[in-house]
Amino acid sequence: MGKKPRLYPIMFLTVVLLSLFAAIFIHAVTEVKGYYFGQRSIFITLSISMLMFFLFVLILRYLFLLWFSFMQQLEFIGRPDDTYLPMVSVLVPAFNEEKVIGQSLLSLLKQDYPYFEILVVDDGSSDRTYEEACKFMGDYGAAKVRVIRQPNRGKAAAHNLAISVAKGELVLCVDADSQLAPGTITHMVRHFSNPGVAAVAGNVKVRNRVNLWTKLQALEYIEGLNMVRQAQGFFRSVNIIPGPVGMFRRSILLSVGGYESDTFAEDADLTLKLVSFGYGIRYEPRAISYTEAPKRLLDLVKQRYRWTRGILQSMKKRPEILLQPWKSLTTFFILWYMMFEAVLWPVMNIFANVFLIGMNLAYGMVGLLIFWFLQLTLLDMVAAVHCIAVEEEDLKLVPLALVYRLFFILIVDVCKVLATVEEVLGFKMSWGKLTRYGTE
Amino acid sequence: MQEFIDLLSKVIFFTIVATIVLAVVTYAAYKVRNARKGPTAAQRTPVLGEDGAFLEPVLFEKYTPDGSTKEEG
User: Fold this and answer.
1) B27-62: per-residue pLDDT in tens?
2) A436 within some domain
3) What is the domain range of residue A205?
4) A24 and A374 in contact (C-beta within 8 Å)?
5) Beta carbon pairs, A and B, within 8 Å
6) What is the CA A90 to chain-centroid distance, rounded?
7) Residue A437 domain-assigned (yes or no)
8) What is the mean pLDDT of residues A84-103?
9) Are residues A237 and A383 in the same domain?
């Protein structure tokens, strides 16, 4: 990762695609100004103006994210790892994970860190998770494996139980289906040699790239989630430490009260809690966790529904951090950006789609429809090329950017908007456990 | 060129409509399935450590940190 010579052709391609995008944008603005404005109703004129403004904001978003993620990438290239090597406890909460827990523990035991323990908490599973985990119990030299059980109380309670009995100065929280890349613990620990660092977020990638859904999610993780996290890492203000890989200073977790179980996104909730106390959170792109993504559309919808409502619940608990820019301007902007991603952008995207369809049907405005998608698709291509190059990922994912915006993001956004409506109206919800297949 | 633009607009048009319908139908299917299934019954198992000892549920004391470990920048 981070080999400079490989970056040059990719940067060239990025510049070419951005130029093409700019040309289309200018052409679109000229077309709209010359043809559509003033000839239709005020509603249409206002809607088109709003969409154009939104597109402009989106371009700025991509430019900022690309720039700061690149800066963050430069920041760690060639930096030697520190000699700071405290004990690390790897916490693995598991509920009905019999198919994947073994593979996860094997990947953890392959870590090259000299001094760590693995602590599995079986959260009252009804399958053989506990028995499967117990097969790994014992002393492996550098690592020790412990397995404990609790009645089914949820992931947050399982995490808290593990934190309370952990022996490490640092705790690495992972999901039971996560498989860590070699060196993950070492790469994360080096950040904590700075006593001011409270937590470090890792880089999550999709492991089971077996069909269109999982491949599109692989692209989304690289382009949509990791690029954002990397840019936020530049400001030491990552807004979500992902469940599959996040390291914390144990003393700080204890001091803020650990995980809370009153939201459906305990990782987002904990991150916001740390942020609200003013702690710095870093990002480590080489700390990679391969996770199993939903293979079926129904499971994907279930997952996004939970994420959206969980994030909104976490933000609702701490509205003050959205209203106090004087406490930390960076945090303030990053949290409003989170709100933009969770609520505003999905609403605008669906509005744009419905509006453009309406204009097509009513007035035959095909130009707008094509311009809109051509530009967004080009933006996605640029971001995909950049992120895939930086992470040395599979180049075969780039062509998927062609259907990413039109198909995948639209489905996710419909789900986000419906989940937001339910959250606002206060509908009840349940956790919604995903089906695990245990793919390699 | 105009024919290509017309074709492209039709492809985009029908893809949007089909995608929105697919998303809403899947969402409805999820909600229906969820409603039928009801809340999952938690299995009550004893709380045991690796040595068989009883572990108490964890309730952390909450207090506001003094911020002495805050990172600059």
Assistant:
1) 999 988 888 776 554 444 444 455 544 444 444 444
2) no
3) 88-322
4) yes
5) 147
6) 21
7) no
8) 92
9) no
Q: Distance between CA atoms of A33 and A254, rounded to whole angstroms?
A: 58
**The pLDDT of residue B24 is above 50:** yes
Is B52's Cβ below 8 Å from some Cβ in A?
Answer: no
- Out of A137, A302, A366, name the one closest to residue B6 (CB): A366
| Inside any domain, residue B6 | yes
Question: What angle is formed at CA A293 by the lines to CA A302 and CA A227, rounded to 5 degrees?
Answer: 105
Q: Searching chain B, which residue's CA lies closest to the CA of residue A146?
A: B50
Number of domains in chain B: 1
Whether residue B46 is contained in a domain is answered as no
> Tens digits of per-residue pLDDT, A26-56?
666 666 655 555 556 777 777 777 887 887 8
Q: Are A108 and A136 in contact (CB under 8 A)?
A: no
Answer whether residue A350 shows pLDDT above 80. yes
Contact B67 A277 (CB under 8 A): yes
CA nearest A420: which of A276, A304, A266? Answer: A304
Q: Which domain holds residue B31?
A: 1-35
Encode pLDDT of A218-253 as tens digits: 999 998 888 888 888 888 888 899 999 999 999 999
Q: Do A290 and A342 sit in the same domain of this protein?
A: no
Give yes or no: residues A308 and A375 share one domain. no
ipTM above 0.85, yes or no: no
Residue B3 lies in a domain: yes
**B70/A151 CB distance under 8 A:** no
B7 touches chain A (CB under 8 A): no
Query: For chain A, how long is the longest CA-to-CA vector?
Result: 77
Whether pTM > 0.80 for this model: the answer is yes
* Interchain contact B3–A (C-beta under 8 A): no
Nearest residue on chain B to A157, alpha-carbon basis:
B58
Indicate whether A93 and A152 sit together in one domain: yes
The pLDDT of residue B53: 44
Cβ of residue B5 closer than 8 Å to a chain A Cβ: yes
Residues of B in contact with A366 (CB under 8 A): 5-6, 9
Q: Show the tokens assigned to A203.
A: 């880089």
Last residue of a domain, one of A322, A357, A380: A322
User: Strand locations in A38-107, DSSP E?
Assistant: 88-94
Best to test chain A binding among B2, B8, B10, B19 (most A CBs inside 10 Å): B19
Q: What is the CATH number of the domain that holds A140?
A: 3.90.550.10
Domain assignment present for residue B31? The answer is: yes
Q: Is B11 part of the contact surface with chain A (CB cutoff 8 Å)?
A: no
